[in-house]
Amino acid sequence: MDTENTKLKAFLFPWLAYGHISPFLELAKKLSDRGFLIELCSTPTNLSFIQKRIPKSYSSTIQLVELILPEFPQLPSHYHTTNGLPLHLNSILHKALKLAKPNLFTILKTRKPDIIIYDVMQLWTFGIASLLNIPSAQFFTSGAAMCSYFVHLYKNLDVEYPFPALHLLDYEIERARKLVHKNEKENENKDDQPEEEMPPQEGIMLISTCRELEGKYMDYLAEIIETRILPIGTLVQDPLASGEGNMNIMQWLDGKKELSTVFVSFGSEYFLTKEEREEIALGLELSQVNFIWVVRFPKGEKQNLEEALPQGFLERVGDRGMIVEWAPQAKILTHSSIGGFVSHCGWNSISESIEFGVPIIAIPMQLDQPMNAKLLVEIGVALEVVRDDNGSLHREDIASVIKGVTSGESSDNMRCKVRSLGKNLRTKSVEDMDATVEELRQLVGNSKSKNGSF
């Protein structure tokens, strides 16, 4: 085991979203287990979230580092996170983080880490690392399938995307093209992201996946971006570390029969429209399945549940349903009464669902989620609620898919598949992480041989 003096110091810099911070924290733990000292950098409001999720056993090897963002009148410090952030402030948060480059430079110059692992959401970090002669690697917190599809779309390649199982519907393609167009417009200003700040093609990208799950998509992604892809396995938090203060939830679940209940959650950053909320509520009611549903609203826009949900819904479902504002997702997914996960198909959520052997009712909303949903259907661990040509959900379809996953003809087979896959990924994730750590050590060693010690 390395001594304190010979351990390598890794500086981790995630995007300011819980969906990115969580896998970075799990990566921090795995690197710590393999002899690294970790410095995890984010804004104070995010660090308060992270601090509560660092087990005591890691308190000496994972250190939190504050990054202070410049002040904007419309972006007070409690908005220095995407959690609960009103959508119209998202671009300002991106701008504020970029304007904090001088602060990040000072932090890195002072702390002198051996390696920087930064989020692909802030590729400009490479420029700072290069100025300081610190080796670095990108970390993509979602899956390879989604990334390969959007890169293919962005590059406007002459050939069709080679994996028909991930074919998007017309309304999904239109949303994807709008997203790509938005990214192109944001990158038009060359002063914003100079070419010399961009990572080289021969660089390294860590990705939270396994070859058993996305092998062909990893290979295609590496081909079209000409970058080495290093899988680190799926990053799933320990369910016992998912928080206290949830006795009512767990007691309610204890009173339900085995596999009789679905967990319903759409992540920490997406907020359902009134129409989506109504169709999902009435779909749950029609399904006659027990459910626990996390219903969230943006900060400052909290609504009365009686008014936010269909009239009489709470009375009609009675004890068959529980509505909460927050829930310990990992802990719930391990409970014996859970027979399915109604999910937006964010990468962290589906990784947890596979890890804990829970089949998925896929209701993707945005970004990578439609691609993730189709990947899950392809490998046989999910059924997707297909929207109409306008992209609208319908309660009857939601109810039908919920019943299909929890008690339909294919439910037992789907459950066997997801449990088998979860078991295989647990083993493979350890192997992938060990191999990637050796690559990172070699990257640091090569840098020190070239540049000398810091």
From TrEMBL:
Q: GO: which molecular function terms?
A: UDP-glucosyltransferase activity
Q: Which top EC class is named for this enzyme in its record? A: transferase
Listed Pfam families: Glyco_transf_N, UDPGT
Q: What are the recorded Gene Ontology BP terms?
A: glycoside biosynthetic process
Glycosyltransferase N-terminal domain: from which residue to which, for each copy?
A: 13-224
Keywords attached to this Swiss-Prot or TrEMBL record, sorted alphabetically, are: Glycosyltransferase, Transferase
Q: Which PROSITE patterns match?
A: UDPGT
The Enzyme Commission number assigned here is 2.4.1.-
Query: Cross-referenced PANTHER family, in alphabetical order?
Result: GLYCOSYLTRANSFERASE
Q: Which family, according to UniProt?
A: Belongs to the UDP-glycosyltransferase family.
Q: What is this protein called?
A: Glycosyltransferase
